[in-house]
Amino acid sequence: MVAGHADGTGYWAVLRHADVMHVARHPVVFSAARGGVVLEDLDPDQLAMMQDMILSMDPPRHVEYRRNVAPHFKARVMAGIEDQIRAQCRSIMVDASERGEVDFVHDVCAPLPTQIIGELVGIPDEDRANIHHWAERITGGQDDEIAAIDESQGDDGSMEGSIQLAMYAIGLANERRADPRDDLMTLMLATEVDGRPMDEMGIGSFFVQLIVAGNDTSRTMLSSGLLALLQHPDQLAELRADRTLIPGAVEEMLRWANPLHYFRRTAAEDTELSGQAIAAGDKVAMIYTSANRDEAVFDDAQAFDIHRSPNPHLSFGIAEHFCLGVHLARLEGRVFFDELLDSFSTIELIGEPPPPALEPQQRAQGTPRAARRLIPDDSSGIALASPPCIPRRVSDPSGPDHHGPRGVERSQRL
Length: 414
Ligand code: HEM
Fold this sequence. Notes:
Blueprint: E1 11-14, H1 17-25, E2 30-31, H2 44-51, H3 61-69, H4 75-79, H5 82-98, E3 102-103, H6 104-109, H7 111-121, H8 128-139, H9 144-153, H10 157-178, H11 184-189, E4 192-193, E5 196-197, H12 200-231, H13 233-241, H14 246-256, E6 262-267, E7 271-273, E8 276-278, E9 283-287, H15 288-291, H16 326-343, E10 346-349, E11 373-378, E12 381-384, E13 408-411
Parallel strand pairs: 1-9, 10-12
Antiparallel strand pairs: 1-13, 2-6, 3-11, 4-5, 6-9, 7-8, 11-12
Helix pairs in contact: 5-7, 5-16, 7-8, 7-12, 8-10, 8-12, 10-12, 12-14, 12-16, 14-16
The structure holds protoporphyrin IX containing FE.
């Protein structure tokens, strides 16, 4: 069923690379604001909250907001914190090799994104564990252990995490107002949105957005990336021998195991996509997981190949809402794998991957906790007891072009 029908739960799955680009490049026709960016129907309060986030704004408000915050995320700004990212990675690797047993996703990959955003924003070291805890509560709703915390505390972890993080950001902003530093929080105080300097609520909300956007995605890039290498030992060996291959390898990890499966748009008017009529109000999902394997764009699209060039994957989206954290995420991936290979001379995969998950939206959230264990086998090596999810095509690979007749498929999954 498509949106507007009896239960309003269907959506158009946009599978081809060119069609995903078309949707992303027409933000007025395919609105991020109208229904939000997830397929679930949100209640009016939730939708109003989402519409205040950059990810769910439409032009012209989005253009204005983004123009003001984007300079803080340029590649050369991110390069300025490379040394700190490397130091954080080293310390995580030392910690991993000292422990008898570590959970790779949660102990090795998970702390890094919040540490790094902490570095960027200017969060004191002693506060970062708390920030990480609240971030986990926002994005970990489908992780059994984190859901159990929600249950034991009798609250909605996602809402509680957002409130705590926003309150923290407001407190930090006040400190920076009195004592400016060379950090993002100080810069945010001077950033204008909607024609005036960001107010406290705006700063709190933007901080939460950064944490949400950068946390699970980066963690999944790192854990799925390692899995991809472990499944392709010849390429892992190549990477060990020649670290100049790391940037290309990170791009291929992002293509092959994209951390976000999709973002949603809602048709603002009757339109057409590759010959398929789409009615105003219909939900449209840009399925990056499929676009990244489009044979019309990628040779041998199912193969993991760290030498792939060019590699125009859509894992960071494209056009209007192209990921603001792209330079940070890439840098993080490059430094992390360099340090991982330096720290562990052997990395062994033991156990079978769990069944792949298409939904929910984020790959890591669909990963059972038990499947994330990484055990050091000796002082120089680590073993992955059971890896995170492996990627899977969205469409039925048995069809003639793997995309169905038009590459735009009706789905009844949600
Ligand atoms: C591997 C890691 C990451 C992946 C795969 C990823 C993916 C994406 C995607 C697909 C979008 C586009 C959404 C759309 O078209 O609706 C996006 C937007 C965004 N990302 Fe990322 N992201 C990552 C890391 C980060 C980090 C580290 C940050 C923060 C520093 C961040 C901040 C944002 C923001 C603020 C937006 C919204 C931009 C806008 O709406 O104009 N992301 N990201």
